Amino acid sequence: MSTGAIIAIVVVAVIVIALIAFMVPRMRARSDRRELEQRRERAARDERAEATNRAEQADEAERRARIARREAEAGRAQAELHAERAELHDRGLADQELERDRFQRDPDPDPERPERRDQPARY
Asked: Less crowded by CB within 10 Å, the N or C end of the chain?
């Protein structure tokens, strides 16, 4: 081989080595950027899924709270109803209910006497 050919081969080898030395860090940086972008997308997707899940849980908790509030309101209304009835009984204004209740519980102690069913019980 001639000296010119050897010099040409060496120059080409040096150029190839320089290109490789120059391109490898750029390719590595590009690969790192792609990996970082993929991790960002994955993290954003996971955060969106968690946000959706938490929103659904919050909606369910709000529904349960509305139901509990309505049950509490119904219970409060029942308590007020019983308090009003107690006040009527205290004033003697609900004696007819007591009579009705007594007839419903003990309609006739002696079933052989039909005339007693129509008469209210005497104290």
From this structure: C
Long-range CB contact pairs, 52-58, < 8 A, 24+: none
Q: Is the pTM of this model over 0.70?
A: no
Closest CA to 120 of 92, 104, 86: 104
Residue 27 belongs to what H/E stretch? helix 3-91
Question: What tokens appear for 35 in the block?
Answer: 């990996």
Contacts of 89 (CB under 8 A, 6+ apart): 98
Return the half-sphere exposure (C-beta side, CA atoms, 13 A cut-off) of residue 21. Answer: 6
Q: How does residue 106 score in pLDDT terms, banded at 50, 70 and 90?
A: low
Contact call for residues 94 and 86 (beta carbons, < 8 A): no
The tens digit of pLDDT for each residue in 81-99 reads: 999 989 988 888 877 877 7
Enter the DSSP assignment of 107: S
Dig out the tokens for 85 from the structure.
């009835």
CB 81 within 8 A of CB 87: no
